[in-house]
What we know:
With about 180 residues, the chain is mostly helical. The chain is about 70% helix and about 0% strand. The longest helix is centred in the N-terminal third of the chain and has 22 residues, at about 1-25.
Amino acid sequence: MPRMLNHFLLLVCVFFALLISACVSTPPAPVRDISEEATQAEQELATGNYSEAARLWQEAALVAEGPIRNHYRLQAAEAWMLAGENDRSLSLLGQVDEQQLFNDRLARYSLLHAELALASADAESAEIYLNAARPNLTANQQDRYRQLLDRTARMRTSPASYALATASAALQPGSPYSTTK
Length: 181
């Protein structure tokens, strides 16, 4: 009996030693403050430095989790498009989980896809994305939606009209294709 008691005490000691060692672990890595990168990205966007804004949002997306990661990826994709990097924009959009996007962000996602489709002269895909965006549009997305819808209609009518419409849009201040700041 004393031998069984010794084994039992030994097992209890080993159990408590394991329990204590499990409680004492290395502290978690410090959480990186991504709001600084997002703020910097907003500033870069405001000054027209779209490539740098996109890069900063991509960095923020690397450490963010959940819906905010998708938001930063969407922001970066829009900035890459504004920088004229449509392939990068489309690639990044492929990493966005649209199931985690709601309302205005889902509309932004669809509008950006439509814009990239138009840049590739794909009016059919642009129409599909515009139809997907329609139910989630906010008031400040309505103009962009109408412009894209108009460009899609012109492209369907005549590719030459599309080229003229795109060149005209580039001359409009505030347009994603604007050549003026």
